[in-house]
Amino acid sequence: MKAIKKAAEIIRQGGLVAFPTETVYGLGADARNQEACLNIYKAKGRSSHNPLIVHVSTLAQGMKLAEFNDDALKLADLWPGPLTIVLPQKKDANIADCVTAGLDTIAIRIPFHSTALELINVSGCAIAAPSANKSGSLSTTSAEHVKANFGTEIFTLGTKQNCSIGLESTIIDLSTNKPTILRHGFFTLEIFEKLLNKEIKVADKDSKIKAPGMLLKHYAPITNIRLEANFLQKDEIGLNFGNSTLDTSHSLNLSIKSDLLEAALNLYNFLHILDNFCIKNNIKTITIAPIPHIGIGIAINDRLKRAGS
Ligand code: TXA
Ligand code: MG
């Protein structure tokens, strides 16, 4: 049986499937099925207060689940892609309670990756999916990463077309009259301000509205992280950017040509590689060069800050 068909069958029967998206791998279940979605929380060790993103393949499918206002319809032009929009949930959405963690809003995303879209279509339902990693640890950008988190117990779709972004989607909350970025990603504040022609806020630790999942400690390797470093100390391994010189024989470079998109794409994979190396070789710290705070660099620095806190 074709892998997608098998995966869709598992989803329809209330099971879990790990699948690639253009951002990171997702751990999906039928978003209508409470028991199946509760199993996502169980598998990840995720707090029940932290709601899941609901993945659909068309705007029409999303509009059955959420109230789309004018701003949301404008930003929907960026779909399919690495964008999640939080909106008021429709009363008759038929989404399992645990997916929204009791909130009256719902987070919707149309992914770009063809495997993700095909899985949603063949399953015939919206798919609730957080990133496919144990809660608090590094997100996954390959089937091997998923296996390292969950073993072989979860059916995992491989892909020829890898994750092309490598960082989780930008989340924007459009459920209030103050559009607010809850999580930085590929699409930036400037893009939203241009498209909506209004001021966009960024949720900070004092904001009332924020993604419940944006706890400070998150996306973390097991090894310690030291940021914005210009030199290596004893027992450290370097993660460089551009022409930085944190050199040991096992250091890596996120992007020799200082390309932030390439750096975003390499980030989780390189952290996985260095983390494994450090654990094996009893190295204490992954030391990371400064990353320019522009474009997707803002999202990279956001994830690094959480990984290191
Ligand atoms: O790129 C992505 O977004 C990936 C792929 C698989 O789509 N998914 C992902 O999911 O990163 P997860 O669960 O790791 O992060 C989802 C975030 C959490 O911080 C959660 O709190 C927030 O979305 N979220 C979900 N529903 C929300 C809602 N109704 N209001 C505010 N935040 C919400
Ligand atoms: Mg996550």
Explain this structure.
It is a single chain. It contains nine helices and 14 strands. Helices cover 30% and strands 16% of the residues. The model has no long low-confidence stretch (mean pLDDT 94). The protein is an alpha/beta fold and 309 residues long. α1 crosses α5 (114-123). β1 and β2 (26-30) form a beta hairpin. The strands form two sheets. A ten-stranded mixed beta sheet has the order 7-1-2-6-3-5-4-8-9-10, sandwiched between helices. The radius of gyration is 19 Å and the shape is globular. The chain has helices at residues 3-12, 34-44, 59-63, 70-75, 114-123, 143-150, 189-196, 260-281, 297-308, and strands spanning 17-19, 26-30, 53-55, 83-88, 105-109, 127-128, 155-156, 170-173, 180-183, 201-202, 224-226, 236-240, 252-253, 285-288. The structure holds threonylcarbamoyladenylate (TXA) and magnesium ion. Magnesium ion (MG) binds at residues 130-131, 139.
Which features characterize this protein?
single chain, 309 residues, alpha/beta, ten-stranded mixed sheet, binds threonylcarbamoyladenylate, binds magnesium ion
List the helices and strands and how they pair.
Elements: H1 3-12, E1 17-19, E2 26-30, H2 34-44, E3 53-55, H3 59-63, H4 70-75, E4 83-88, E5 105-109, H5 114-123, E6 127-128, H6 143-150, E7 155-156, E8 170-173, E9 180-183, H7 189-196, E10 201-202, E11 224-226, E12 236-240, E13 252-253, H8 260-281, E14 285-288, H9 297-308
Parallel strand pairs: 1-7, 3-5, 4-8, 9-10, 11-14, 12-13, 12-14
Antiparallel strand pairs: 1-2, 2-6, 3-6, 4-5, 8-9
Helix pairs in contact: 1-5
Bound molecules: threonylcarbamoyladenylate and magnesium ion (MG).
Threonylcarbamoyladenylate is lined by residues 21, 23-24, 26, 50-53, 82, 84, 86, 100, 103, 105-107, 109, 129-131, 168-169, 171, 182, 211-214.
